[in-house]
Amino acid sequence: MRKKLLSLLILTVMITLLSACRGGGSTTEDPVEGEKIVLKYWNSLTGADGDVMRQLVKQFNDAHKNEIEVVETFVNEVDYYTNLNLLVPMRKGPDVAIMHSYLVQSYADEGLLRPIEPMLESSEIEIKAEDYITDIFNSLYFEDELYAIPLDVHTVGIYYNKTLLEKYDLEVPTNREELLAAANTVQAGEEDVWGLPISTVWPSEWIFTTSLYQNGGLEINSELNPAYNSPEGKAALEAVADLIHVEKVSPVNLSVDQDLFMFQSGKALFHIQGSWMLRSIIESKIEFGVIPLSNMFGTNTDTKNQISARSHTFVVPNDSTDMHELKEAAVMTFIKYMTENAYVWAQAGQIPASNVARATAEYQALPYLNGFGAIENFRVAAQSPYFHEAYSPIYSRVTQALANSNYNAQTLLTAAENEALQLLAEARQ
Length: 429
Description:
CATH architecture of the largest domain: 3-Layer(aba) Sandwich
Number of domains: 2
Low-confidence stretches: 1-28
Distance between the termini: 11 Å
CATH class of the largest domain: Alpha Beta
Largest sheet: 6 strands, mixed
Radius of gyration: 22 Å
Helix content: 40-55%
């Protein structure tokens, strides 16, 4: 992260352009009590989920007229984090922003985020840990300071074609053996239909991580170094790649979203995809259901039901050390409202992290979301400010295994570990 930040800061030519697009940074003038407070809110939600976020922000603004106005800016994910890296140190960042949970510790370590609890105390806004999914909330601490509040939990699941299952009088599978049996039956009986097409690129990192958990493996160890080059990691990689090369329920070398298009057009019985694509699959008009990835890749007694999950969280960028208490209160009011009304956000396929939001009648009435699995089976990434350096090298190796039937799992895992150790050495300097 440190190396990346330094390299990004060299791109000074972008600063003027980005500042112009966003009207500069945080105001240096303190708000006056009784006047409307304007908050700048940044996120990377540009797809169908972005439309739902716009709806929720409008709902907040309508509920706080003449008090708080949230002005939202959104760009694609790559540009979004580049903007944060460049502009927050220049004090040109937002008042509140969305950040993926696995990055929070890294940004906190860099000093780019403000701790949340002092703002809760000064504003007297009540946001309690027990009102959120415990594992997610606890993952947002760094060095005993809370740096984020979770909005949601999102994961991957198995979408299935109801019409094809019913045609062959098949039950909805609950484990890998049943999944493969159904996939082979339909694939044998239907021309130009595959049992479980899998893209070699995406969301393969989610699938592998789930397989790693279910085989009893770890992403990083207690020293925060990579831990996936292990017998459990080898079993996890083979369990995913075998679907293509051994079980042959998928074509080889499917590009990104080619597997999604096959499912949407009725050319696939099963499809592994994120909850965030739920709206898109609904719009395809296919008759479908959703089942969890639990018990699909490993048989470890303690972890076979675990599923890789992440969270969108709210953070307060540290581009000003003297944020006025009135603005702090406005930010905390916004965060509390957004999380507790996340039943609206759930329409985008994101499961609210707030227990309050999940208990609402509006959320309970939504279809499909319960199909992604039980809350207690969702497992967020291991906590480390160097998580990206330690774990991300595995992603390209998973792609290599999925694309090549002659892959060597041990060679790929060793290469990923060696790259990770080099990245970690650089980051820790």
